Amino acid sequence: MALPAAPLLTRKKVVGAAAETTKGTSVLASVTTALASTLTYDAKCSPQGMVDDGRREPDGLYQGQIVAVPGKRVGQLTFRQELRHGDVLMTLLTACGYKDATGYKPVSSISDQKCLSMKVWEDGRMKAIIGAMGDCSIEWTHGGRVFANWTFTGVWQAPTDVAMPATAPVTSVTTLKAAGATLTVGGAAIGYVGSGRINLGNSVAMREDITSASGVIHAVIESRNPTVELDPEAATVANSDCYGSLLAGTAGALALVFTDGTATLTVGAPKLQYTDIADSARGGRLVDAATFLCAASSGDDELSFAYSV
């Protein structure tokens, strides 16, 4: 093993992905460029528990372990994405159980859900997973940028040495911000929210197959539990009876629109219902830290996303 001539740098990373025609059948050969018009941060790709089921502690004279047997080849890719109009948000959502239907909405038909082949180039080294599906949370803080946090799980592929693809830097300051946004629940404004989070709430598992050399063939979404978290300033009951809504099980439609000054990202949920309200504070002010369930109204419609200009 030769010593490296130079270190690999943490920020010299590029993420790429392509949809698979057949789930678990690699299309890595077609992944040659970075995610289009997309800013990613802190990408990490690593095997998950490859020897957990292969640890060997046999009976005998010695108390220690013997060499473990590598087992199923599962990998996980995580990264943070700054949301900008024209990025690949909607493409990545298709591998989180969403489909374009007048805005991207969840689907329960497995055949309508996509798997991705995904790469991370790391300053001369390339890691990959195939048959990947994922989960996502979208979060924001007042006045700041809007981010998506992705976690994709798939079949781990052996890393290879590959030169990074050429990428052009993004020179525009235009990006979605948590400023000038629209936020209502049940048609009423939610007062003075400082931050929030939307969780797709996907439960992702690997599909087992003993005929595969990896022991698994692709990921599958077994269930979903989308939620929304908001932190409005506390108010009197006369002004905002959130506890009354919690007790009554009242559900109202969420309308949330982020803008970059021209383009918008609209997030909708037809039946947003309080499930928890916690005492919190922002500085010296009381905050009602609320968690909402995104319930379905007429089927696969509990959450939706749409870009527009």
Task: Give the helices and strands, then pairings.
Elements: E1 13-19, E2 39-47, E3 74-82, H1 89-93, E4 98-100, E5 104-106, E6 116-122, E7 125-141, E8 146-161, E9 177-185, E10 188-189, E11 193-199, E12 202-208, E13 216-224, E14 227-232, H2 242-248, E15 251-259, E16 264-282, E17 285-295, E18 304-308
Antiparallel strand pairs: 1-6, 2-3, 3-8, 4-5, 6-7, 7-8, 7-11, 9-10, 9-15, 11-14, 12-13, 14-17, 15-16, 16-17, 16-18
Q: Could you characterize the architecture of this molecule?
A:
By secondary structure, this protein is mainly beta. It has one domain. It has 2 helices and 18 strands. It has helices at residues 89-93, 242-248; strands at 13-19, 39-47, 74-82, 98-100, 104-106, 116-122, 125-141, 146-161, 177-185, 188-189, 193-199, 202-208, 216-224, 227-232, 251-259, 264-282, 285-295, 304-308. The strands form 3 sheets. Strands 1, 2, 3, 6, 7, 8, 9, 10, 11, 14, 15, 16, 17 and 18 form a 14-stranded antiparallel beta sheet that branches. A hairpin with a 4-residue loop joins strand 7 (125-141) and strand 8. The longest helix is centred in the last third of the chain and has 7 residues, at 242-248. The chain is globular and about 70 Å long. It starts with 12 loop residues before the first strand and ends with a strand. The model has no long low-confidence stretch (mean pLDDT 96).
